[in-house]
Amino acid sequence: MKRQRMLKAIRDQGEKPWDIIIIGGGATGLGTALDAASRGYRTLLCEQSDFTKGTSSRCTKLVHGGVRYLAQGDISLVLELLHERGLMAKNASHLVKKQSFIIPNYDWWDRPFYTVGMKVYDMMAGKLGLGPSQSLSSAEVQKAIPNLKTEGLCGGVIYYDGQFDDSRLAINIAQTCAEHGGVLVNYMCVTGLLNNRDGSISGVEAVDQESNTPYSLQAKCVVNATGVFVDDIIKMDEPDAPRLVQPSQGVHLVLDKKFLKGDSAIMIPKTSDGRVLFAVPWRERVVVGTTDTPLDDCVLEPQALGEEIEFLLSTVKKYLTRKPTRKDVLSVFAGLRPLAAPKEGENTSTKKISRSHHLQVSLSGLVTISGGKWTTYRKMAQDTVDKAAIVGGLDDTAQCRTMDLPIHGWLANVNYNDPLYYYGSDAGFMRDIVSDHPELGKKLHHRLPYTLIEVIWSVRYEMARTVEDILARRQRALFLDARAAIEMAPEIASILARELARDEAWQKNQVEEFTALAKGYYLEDD
Ligand SMILES: Cc1cc2nc3c(=O)[nH]c(=O)nc-3n(C[C@H](O)[C@H](O)[C@H](O)COP(=O)(O)OP(=O)(O)OC[C@H]3O[C@@H](n4cnc5c(N)ncnc54)[C@H](O)[C@@H]3O)c2cc1C
């Protein structure tokens, strides 16, 4: 996957229409591109920034059936999530791990209640289940989570869901798509839609953000998969269309693993504001989240609000014997959920808005896919391409193939003790390079596991273009330890400058831009 090659493919396509152009390179757009390319459709995806710069790198990292939606009675969503969870674990085995979750019970009647609920959850997963849930005594819960608050603890329930690395999976989906002939370009912003004489959509206008080169790209069908930004694209088509998406912000705090000992995650089904709170082990850290704050405006780099941070810290403190404070927060990141906007006069709380996906086609043929979850990206893509094939008059004998399609990097047996395990089958190639060039095995920061080879690999084969692409999404340094990421930036910039033939001014600018951005990811002391 090389950007220059992608741009060449665009030039080679010339005036000939693509079967399908997808706007947006998050989970939804990338999944759609993979589905389309693997059906044999000539596919182009344009992402205005880096792949998963939006919500898709900022999720809780759960591949889950949505226990909360079960409590809300949204059975069809839970069934779909559980099915897709199983497929994701099967097809991206190197990135989806089985994770145990414990619901600690502090009221005597919670234990039978959640035990029965989780048995229903297991049953709904059927053959794709990850392991049977079980009721635990108070002593068993304490053994599994040694630093959980014990006062009033009556027991708990253990159940299993999946955990994954969102931006790494996205890159592997992009690579799989490219291997099927798909063309994907990051830093390619769609600025307008093209129309035929009859008003139907015939393609997009886009601008390469690196060179400022404008492109007019013809397509039989255009898919709008821009997450919380779908309304901006819809307005290019229908300026007076009602708003489709209401963004809701979710914030996560990342703490050192010492705050949550053991291998299990904690799931608190009902916090003081009625939300679900997770504390999940992730890459030798703990991710605590999340909040649900309705917002009016969407930005690519959302900022956690003071009250969201205080809410997460004060809530998690109630359950842990070691109490985290602001200075213990290694990283804080915010993402925007693309929830369905309430209809006029409707006053629905964000917690109650369905997380199912929504597909619509405008009169001029713009296919818009919104909502959903990372876990359901594959099914969303399948539904979208089915619809796009009708709208674009594409060969409708081409069937969806992604149910059984291994994602780039897939491995039959994963060794989670290998520091490169999340590169899956690529790790072997990376190790071969390091054995020829041992200097590339050098660690980049003493608090993080990353090595030089990973930077080189991501620039050459994963289309990383900036310091942020490396530190936020190819590696996860920014999300694991924002201060360490800032310290790593100058070395990353110098490697990138060498690899991409950039000058010193570019290098300096990259470090300054990244440092300014990363300052939003750690907390100043009170
Ligand atoms: C806090 C939080 C926690 C979550 N946790 C989970 C979880 O644990 N498990 C789970 O399954 N789901 C989770 N989700 C849901 C999941 O993350 C989202 O449903 C999913 O990432 C949405 O992906 P998307 O591709 O639709 O949107 P995005 O990832 O936002 O992608 C849209 C892309 O479109 C691009 N774009 C916009 N305009 C243009 C343009 N003009 N030209 C080109 N590109 C453009 C943007 O740059 C962006 O990259 C969570 C969501 C949030 C907010």
Name the features.
526 residues; alpha+beta; 10-stranded mixed beta sheet; binds flavin-adenine dinucleotide
Structural summary, described in words:
With 526 residues, the chain is an alpha+beta fold. The chain contains 16 helices and 20 strands. Strand 13 and strand 14 form a beta hairpin. Helix 2 (27-38) runs parallel beside helix 7, helix 13 (467-474) packs across helix 15 and helix 15 packs antiparallel against helix 16 (504-518). The radius of gyration is 23 Å and the shape is globular. The structure holds flavin-adenine dinucleotide. The site of flavin-adenine dinucleotide has 39 residues, from helix 2, strand 8 and strand 16.
Which percent range fits the helix content?
Answer: 25-40%
> Which molecules other than protein and nucleic acid are bound?
flavin-adenine dinucleotide
The Rg value, from CA coordinates, equals 23 Å
Described by its quaternary structure, the protein is single chain
Report on the biggest sheet.
10 strands, mixed
The total of beta strands comes to: 20
N-to-C terminal Cα separation, in Å? 45 Å
